[in-house]
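Today's session is about reading a structure prediction critically. Students often jump straight to the picture, but the first step is always the sequence itself: look for stretches that repeat, for charged clusters, for runs of hydrophobic residues. Only then move on to the predicted structure, which in these notes is written as discrete structure tokens rather than atom positions. Here is the chain we will use throughout the hour.
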Amino acid sequence: MESATENSTVSVTGSAIIVRQPDIAYIALYVRMNGILLEDAIRDATNKLEQISTTLKNSFPEIKEIQPKDIYVGESKSYSFMAREKAEPPQPEVIKGLLVLTSPHSDLTTKIVDTASRMGCIIQNPTDPHLGSYPRGVVLYGLADYEEAEQEALENAITDAKENASKAARILNKQINSIKEISSVETLRMKMAHDETIWLNRNIIVFPTSYLSVSPQQVEVSVKVSVTFELVNDAQ
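Below is the predicted structure for this chain, in token form.
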């Protein structure tokens, strides 16, 4: 319970979690290329990316889409941390990413990752190994069509809030009446959208949905809601 004012209203929170089967899988892959000149590294990375994309599309018809992403252009990080003579030129490095969208079957995603790895892909972002709470891992299973599950979770969260309000009202010898106000609704999707600009400014692959899981069996959709109910005198 958040608050009760003059026994006329009561404000509570309610929460709910809905579990759904994933409807899509995301595979994050990376290509890293070095060169004496930057143009060499860019050319080699672009060619390698196209080669891998073509091979994956031809080998796995279940793939829905492959999205390329520029991750990093600059000096080789491993090289820059090593001691070198001032006269030595920097070693350019280019890192590109591939986000593969495919069917959510673990045997399929495993084959795609293994095929890409044999072609030289890296399965962890080499530029930023410490991403805090952002989803990590080469394969994540997601819920792209989340609207129905989110609506059901919202309804369940309001029901939970109603039960919490009834318990609070009994302490005051009152009963709850109608909903006076829904002051806030929080979903994981909304929370991730709030931080979207932060993630988009990082050299990472941002996933198209916030509902993600490492499990191919289930994805959780959670909702938290704040509701204010009117109170009336207990009929008894």
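Discussion point for the tutorial: DSSP finds six helices and nine strands in the chain.
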